[in-house]
Write a structure and sequence with these properties.
about 25% strand, 2 domains, Arc Repressor Mutant, subunit A, alpha+beta, 9-stranded antiparallel sheet, elongated, 9 strands
Amino acid sequence: MNWVDGFQKSIDFIESNLDGSPEIEEIAGLAALSPFYYQRIFGALCGMTVGEYIRGRRMTLAAQELSGTEARVIDVALKYGYDSPDSFAKAFQRFHGISPSMAREAGAPLRYIAPLHIKISLEGGSMLDYCIMEKAPFTVVGTKRRFNDETSYREVPKFWDEWMAQGEKRPIGGAFGVCRDMNGKDFEYWIADLYMPWEEIPEGCETLVIPGGLWAIFACRGPLPDAFQKMNTQIWSEWLPSLKGYKLAGNYNLEVYGPPEESVNYIWIPLVKE
């Protein structure tokens, strides 16, 4: 369970730096993960993004200081990373539903997010259909858009909806969804098809080479996007902690869409042998 220990160490680091500016690269490094995978695993396991957790914990501690001490609002705002009392007050209002000054009143309703403690119980009973296969490099062609991990669960489906709304005018079939990390905070998402060199690249599309190597390939059944999100949670909470002899690789993963009549789609995750 070293993986779980490393993940908890990263959360403890966040907790000890809530009055600073912890960088995602350093947080993820403590869990021996890339920022790309760390943020996806964090969201699947914890039900919120890293940024949401940090903001929630800061607002929790800020409210405790305002209600239990004589600290000035501006000092609390600066301590938890806000440049001005106004920006702090707006964030505080969104989180707690009241202004910072009202937090000092007796009986003020305040929200609380407790520090996270990762505990994964491998009890079995759920089925994960997967295989590990070697794949040669291949090229896809498609359209891409950049997303932020904070909003991607909402915005990526909208991207698909816009693409589907084009109907017969769609330049590609959409056999792949490709997530590719850009800088640890943003990622590119491609709606793509397998590239055939003898065919012209459709207008508005580009090509992307997917490196060869080992892939863990998971079969996913059920309506999308819920089935993919459920599968991701299973992968990170059940499969990864028990993985032996391999570790995560690359800064990308794939969604591969099967024929509609088969009702089976796939998640591909790159691996390397340890």
